Amino acid sequence: MSFRSAMRYNWYHCRCEHEITSFISGFCRSGILAYSEGYAIILGIVGSVMCANDIRKIIDMGCNLPCHLHRVRKYLWSSLTNHQYRDMKLAATAFSFEYYLMLVFGSIIGSEVFLVPWLIFDAFYLIFEFATTILSIIYGDHVISKPKHFLISMFMIYNWLAIFCASLNMSGSCHD
Known about the structure:
Layout: H1 3-28, H2 36-61, H3 82-109, H4 116-138, H5 147-171
Helix pairs in contact: 2-3, 2-5, 4-5
């Protein structure tokens, strides 16, 4: 590659990168996503309170989980005892509590590093939710006909976009 073609490549690469960055910057500054840092704090506080309440209920109830925390166990989970299921539920809720506290802490101090665990966790959840929706459409369950599930999925996508924009705003990537 000659020097001239290398310079042309670098100019084109930088121009494309700037176009993508400016698009994301404009997207994150538009509408309600412009207030994403405050939304991240509110989401973190609400999530932390809900998780703390669930942890308290799990610990207080012993091996018998409350009805809203106890889901029907099928296939793999049916071999677990109530105590094992409660411990797994407690560990998962404690991790969720930690992610939400990191969301609050990162938003308050303005460090995007603390938002990354929540973004990764929620991205995996959204990927699996999308795969489940596609599979249920293919196999005839028709999840789209259930508006409650569709609205919850849209709300989760909005949450992820808001925290992503908050992370970009904190890192300074959304400033021209």
